[in-house]
Amino acid sequence: MHEQIKAAISFLRDTRQLIVYNARKEERQTQRIAHLHDPGHSISSVKQGSGRGTRHSPTTAETASPALSSKGAANPHGRHDSISKGGANHHGRLDSISKGKERPGSSHGRSGSLAHQWRAAGLASYPRSNPMPAAHPLRLATIEDDEFLHSRALSHPQNGPQEYDIVRGVMRLLQLIVEGHNFKLQEYVRVQPDNIKSFDLVKDVVDYLHAIVPIANEDNIAIIVQVFDTLIDLAQGCTANQVSIFNAKVIQPVNTILSGKYAHCSVPKVTELKGHAVLCLLSLLEDDSDRETKIVFTEMSTTLDLDLTLHNLTLVYERSESILDPDGARRRAAEILKTNQASAKNRALANNPEFSKGRKHRRRRARLHDEAREVQQPATSENKAELKKAADVGYLYCMLIMTLFPVLSDEQRSKCLASPAFSWFKMNTGRIEIVREHAVTGEKRLYTVLFPIPEICASNMRKDTKHRFLWAKKRDSPQDKIESFVNASADIIYEIRNQARVSGQKSLRILAKNYQLWWIGAYLITIVMNIFNLYCTVAPEGTQQPGFDKTFSVCSSTLETIRLITGFLHILFWGLSTAEFTIAQLPLLVNRKRLQVQVKEKEQRRKDKLRLWGENIGKDDTEDAEDVEDTSGGSSRFQYNSTELTTRELALGFLFESRALYHGGMVLLSIVGLFFPPAYALHLLDFMYRDEVLQGVIASITLNWNSLSKTVLLGILIVYVYSVVGFVFFRHAFDRNSGLYCDSLFDCFITILSYG
């Protein structure tokens, strides 16, 4: 165990030296490029200035990492000499590790797995460089101090892909060490308490990011993305690493990346780079309950360039609008076409009134139509994947802004709310809260998690379905709640599939989308028709006999015509509501019953098979049989859910489903209302069917239906006993003139039941 710890410490030391070495090299190259672009400087002037001992300003890698200059502080005059010698020894150790050799008293070759990881990272081919000569203690070593770097810079202005692949492999290896929220390894990468000297690799990785971002190009974008991935895994779940990464000024390279055009790089790579940069910032904003993390939230809201973030979000939205919001893309294309046509026509008529009659105008109009068609054309199969990735990056921008929204200023909030892109992504971003234990204190804390709502859920789930899925569940215990969610998931999946099928046809999509409009229209017409009945329906004087022909209307012919037209509209709205129910909701009810039947059959088969196995073979084989039966049953259940309903099944479901019969009965009552207007009064009771509050009240009253029915039966029995007693002993007490009849036992029973 002691040898493994020593090997791990040696591995961290070698990794840090390699990261620092590449960071210094990238900074030297950046300085060289800056001097070459400066008209008053050249490489020779840099040499002359360095030879005279000119003092250079410290760079980011030196000012940001005090650990880099710890040896220089102890021995200032031999600082660069010690660093160069350490670099040479570092290469020697890497070669020994990659070749699998072990020196006496060394621990580098004692861990075969680490040596294998180094060889997998390609470190055996890492280039050697000559030791740098001793320099002035206050002067930063320039690119000319290293013979290898100087020759590479003169011949190749950019680092070779092989060197970037080596560093990328090291960063990937460092990411794999802490992958999976391994809190102990995340802490150990930042600080090694069991070592004489601790190396902050988290800070060194950020320093390397500072060095490589200014020279980002097509060759090293992949390594920058890998650096961000490493930082994300170092930060997630570890508050100390999050604070360390933020204190290393990771915001500066992120702002640089967000502002970069990168014209020589492909658009998908640039989008991926910016997405990883934003995701790195999101990984620093997991928890705001500690004082340090609250400071991170506040400082990031002031240091992050919000205008650049909104600008990139808008670009991503406009680029992927054809798959995110097709209707909005078509509207924008129509506006562009209308504006371009108006402006072109005005300019043409101003120059030549006869222009509109010539060929040039037709060609100009065709070109404007082509421009608008390019805006509204749907995404092809080739670029749809790229647009989907761009949309995912847009969600990351939105999540970052939404996370920082509580600490933003009023002016910043107004900018965000005024952005159409942010409004759209915010509307399609979900939010949940989870309970998770803190890695250090072990306390249970509430964490907010943002996630993009899938397109199929956003467009193919009705609002009442979402509300019913979230709130109409059993909440007696956590187990009942989870079981209720799981049981409802099968219905939700089938409903999403059915809604997707309905949305594929334009007419059915309009019918299903406006389901609330059909019912609201029908109910409003019902109220109007009953108002007509209140003022128009009367009975002849002296007529008290009931019947359909004993009533008539006193309304004028105009009102009667209006009532007739309104009645036909009532039939139309109820017909549309019934058609929508048959297309969108009836298949769900039929599938639910079919699923319940299959579950019962499966359970019965399982019990029968368990009984046979238990009687003939034994308990152990019974458990095996249960596992096999569950597996086969789950497979058949999946096949069952994926089966589409036939027309015969839908017809039978309409006849045997109570809700379907209810809709059909309402249509018939609407037709009857044309000839007998008082029938519209029954449509008013539809409010009980639609309103969830009244349904809850009725459900609470009739919850113990068995007890209520027995109580009513007991009351009827008591009344019957009273009627028997009254008929035998108190018949003379019933006054026939007052309507109290007791000539027979039945008359006594009805009288006592009515009057008591």
Question: What does this 3D model show about the protein?
Answer:
InterPro entries: RIH_assoc-dom, Ryanodine_IP3_receptor. Keywords: Membrane, Transmembrane, Transmembrane helix. This is RyR and IP3R homology associated-domain-containing protein. The protein has about 750 residues and is mainly alpha-helical. Helices cover about 70% and strands about 5% of the residues. The chain folds into 4 domains: about 250 residues, no CATH class; about 200 residues, no CATH class; about 180 residues, no CATH class; about 50 residues. It has a two-stranded antiparallel ribbon with strand order 1-2. The chain has a two-stranded antiparallel sheet with strand order 3-4. Helix 10 packs antiparallel against helix 11, helix 11 packs parallel to helix 14 and helix 13 packs antiparallel against helix 14. It is elongated and about 120 Å long.
Brief write-up:
The protein is an all-alpha fold and 756 residues long. It has helices at 2-37, 43-51, 60-64, 70-74, 79-99, 112-120, 147-155, 161-178, 183-190, 201-212, 221-235, 239-247, 251-259, 267-283, 291-303, 306-319, 321-324, 326-351, 359-376, 384-404, 410-417, 420-427, 455-459, 463-471, 478-503, 506-513, 515-536, 557-616, 619-641, 647-656, 658-675, 686-690, 692-701, 705-729, 745-755, and strands at residues 429-437, 444-452, 537-538, 552-553.
